[in-house]
Amino acid sequence: MEPSPLVAPHSDRPRSFVIRGRKTEAQQRAIDEFWPVYGVDFDGSPLALDTIFGRTAPRVVEIGFGNGENLLALAAQHPGKDFLGVEVHGAGVGRVLAAAHEQGLTNIRVVRHDAVEVFEQGLGPGSVDEVLIFFPDPWPKARHHRRRLVQPDVARLIVAALKPTGVLRLATDWEPYAEHMIDVLDAEPALVNTAGPGGFIPRPEDRPVTKFERRGERLGHAIFDLEYRPTV
Fold this sequence. Notes:
Layout: H1 25-38, E1 39-40, H2 49-53, E2 59-63, H3 69-77, E3 82-86, H4 90-103, E4 108-111, H5 115-122, E5 128-134, H6 152-161, E6 162-172, H7 175-186, E7 191-193, H8 211-218, E8 224-230
Helix pairs in contact: 1-4, 3-4
């Protein structure tokens, strides 16, 4: 049975996503076949990450992995780390499950659920080494800005989940959203911008180039990378 992208019906928090597109037959088959291997059914209970991955290792959470290019590439490059991808779109989930099986990756798990609720309820304090937010939906229209994922309450949830030595990495090709990220995250007292207040870091060499980045470049957009660490 395919997992459902559960959304709490009582919540009045604006969602940072809408369900778009349809899965291909191949993606649906991948979900049917490989969800028991790579999928994590989230019911609002704390996630036992050592049990889920079958080991203790550095943990990386990618919020909104899209088609999974970045998640898959990093998992292949860093077998000593565990990667938890959180995504609500079935097409991307199916693609990641199929590719993880094909590549024989054992350090990927997927949660199909609202990432904010996963951080609220599923990830314990200091349980995560890295959080990745790459090319999230910029919601460019002013009336939709409240839907943007990067908001003060989300920043606080991420801080709570990060280890004291952890890191939050972000990237976007939408300059107004980059400025919004800076405004929100520089204002969070529990985070430090590693590039200094208002600063962006050079593009990390180990961040895979995804279709979202290539599309932004084709459109003439600059790419903005940010890095934050917990305040010591």
